[in-house]
Design goal:
By secondary structure, the chain is α/β, with parallel strands linked by helices. 56% of the residues lie in helices and 11% in strands. It has a seven-stranded parallel sheet with strand order 3-2-4-1-5-6-7, with helices on both faces. α12 links the parallel β6 and β7. The protein is globular, with a radius of gyration of 22 Å. The chain binds guanosine-5'-diphosphate. The site of guanosine-5'-diphosphate (GDP) has 16 residues, from α4. Guanosine-5'-diphosphate binds next to α4.
């Protein structure tokens, strides 16, 4: 195990091996690792916040990884601004399949060999909430390591999309033109988060259909997703395969981001996101306290049974659980051990 100083120096120097280990530290659920991760994040905090954070969503097969490969290699090139690009994946399905994003290195073979890029597959195990929370922290660590573009990829599943939208500046949806497509996009809850749409696979004779779809999406977006200080949401076609339109998609993302910086909306949005992060951390620590308290977890188990069988009201049972927790905490007194600290902002 590296020391705090070694982690800090390695991340600051952009050492990719240390960066990888720092992310594993942040993802670890061991209380000792979490304590160290919290200290590391506190030290790195001054070097964070300077990247463009982009969420990327789309149903499997829409072409997200192909687009990320094209976009990423463009962004790291001199012409694309010589950016340093980090790619993170939030994939709830990886818990089930044992790592569906494991193929990332082959899916994004050019980008993963690019010295200016860093690809981190989805952490395996843990709840979606857990994965998403670590991703927030992972974004910060990547920023401290000098990555000025962070792309967070997620599959088209409602819960993970909201989670990723809640930790990025600009949310890009990769869509397809074609049958059943209106269903795919008009899930209102998802569209509300979307800032930029790329209608992909506009190639091989599919161009005009894609154009029509893009126009429809743009109209739909402007109805649900217009927010003050963020500029107008946009939809355009591209082909991740040929690269046509990919720069323009990035121009939309960047335009959106600079408009938000200019208007002050970016700061405001990140503060709001920090507020939700705080709420999540408090909730998580409370749950941890309950799990750690034998009395409270027994009370909760009992309460579940009683409510399931219709023997009790949830409100009264919730009170009992809280009372048991309070009693447990009081019994432990002032000398209570560290309750599994999680990383702090
Ligand atoms: P993901 O599941 O969203 O990451 O999708 P992938 O990037 O893995 O792409 C799924 C399939 O679509 C692959 O076979 C790609 O080669 C293909 N694909 C991706 N982008 C394009 C595109 O712009 N045009 C065409 N014709 N095929 C594409």
């Amino acid at each position: 195990m590296l020391t705090l100083e070694q982690f800090e120096a390695g991340v600051r120097a952009g050492d990719r091996a240390v960066l990888g280990r720092a992310i594993s530290l942040v993802e670890s659920s061991s209380p000792a690792h979490q304590a160290l991760a919290g200290q590391l994040l506190a030290r790195l905090m001054p070097q964070t916040g300077l990247s463009i954070r982009v969420g990327i969503t789309g149903v499997p097969g829409a072409g997200k990884s192909t687009l990320i490969e094209k976009l990423g290699t463009y962004l790291t090139s001199e012409e694309g601004g010589a950016h340093r690009v980090a790619v993170l994946a939030v994939d709830p399905s990886s818990d089930v399949t044992g790592g569906s994003i494991l193929g990332d290195r082959t899916r994004m073979s050019k980008l993963s060999a690019d010295p200016r890029a860093f690809i981190r597959p989805s952490p395996s195990g843990g709840t979606l909430g857990g994965v998403a929370r670590r991703t927030r922290e992972t974004i910060l660590v990547c920023e401290a390591a000098g990555y000025d573009v962070v792309l967070v990829e997620t599959v088209g599943v409602g819960q993970s999309e909201s989670a990723v939208a809640g930790m990025t500046d600009v949310f890009l949806a990769v869509m397809l033109a074609g049958a059943g497509d209106d269903l795919q996009g008009i899930k209102r809850g998802i569209l509300e988060h979307v800032d930029v749409i790329a209608v992909n696979k506009a190639d091989g004779g599919n161009e005009s259909r894609a154009q029509i779809a893009a126009r429809e999406y743009e109209m739909a977006l402007r109805m649900v997703s217009a927010r003050a200080g963020e500029g107008k949401p946009t939809a355009r076609t591209c082909s991740a395969l040929t690269g046509a339109g990919v720069r323009e998609v990035w121009a939309d993302v960047e335009g959106r981001s600079s408009e938000m910086r200019r208007s002050g909306r970016l700061d405001e949005k990140r503060r709001e996101q920090n507020q939700s992060w705080l709420e999540e951390l408090v909730r998580e620590r409370l749950e941890h306290l309950i799990r750690e308290s034998a009395g409270a977890s027994a009370a909760l188990e009992e309460a579940r049974e009683r409510v399931r069988h219709g023997h009790a009201r949830p409100t009264a049972e919730a009170d009992r659980v809280i009372e048991a927790l309070k009693a447990g905490l009081a019994a432990r007194g002032a000398g209570a051990p560290d309750m599994g600290r999680v990383a702090q902002p």
